[in-house]
């Protein structure tokens, strides 16, 4: 059985290549969801998820009531540190929810034993910090885990977006530092992500990361608005 994450990854790459070839140019509208899903042989929920990724990459923009507009990727204004600094915690979590589960699913498909070993080392650091009640070390290990996960992304087009995710993650540093009592929960949730990656279960890795970010929102008192096809835990 092909996982939903594998399907979405494939659709994103197909659409990205089609845009690069000029099949649809800047200012064009993509075919309607039903037509495009039929062309690609996928479900409409999978297509919607792929469009979300392309929108995050700055390649398209969803226009409510109109469709999906193709953008000029070269003309997209770069995201600056000031832009990230102006984001709210809800903005940060929405960005993380959009990208990190997808990244976890990609890593599950490509990570080698050395890559997984690096992720496990950061988890060991979190465990040691938890045992020694060193909240600052625990915070640093948590950030290091997510940065190590981002670094394993093999698709080059994600690199600039991953950088923004890392910046956004650090935007929530004060909130994370002020909640050391949640380190044990963060550790359990991240361990679940790594177990799924070790099993090369892309769909489960994505699911566990979604659960982690939703739990982070609950711990911060933030309720995220999420697509219907991505229910909570």
Automatic annotation (TrEMBL):
Keywords: DNA-binding, Transcription, Transcription regulation. CDD domains: WHTH_GntR. It comes from the Bacteria. The keyword DNA-binding applies. The keyword Transcription applies. Transmembrane segments: none annotated. Residues 5-73 form the HTH gntR-type domain. PANTHER family: HTH-TYPE TRANSCRIPTIONAL REGULATOR LGOR-RELATED, TRANSCRIPTIONAL REGULATOR, GNTR FAMILY. This is FadR/GntR family transcriptional regulator. The lineage of its organism: Bacteria, Pseudomonadati, Pseudomonadota, Gammaproteobacteria, Pseudomonadales.
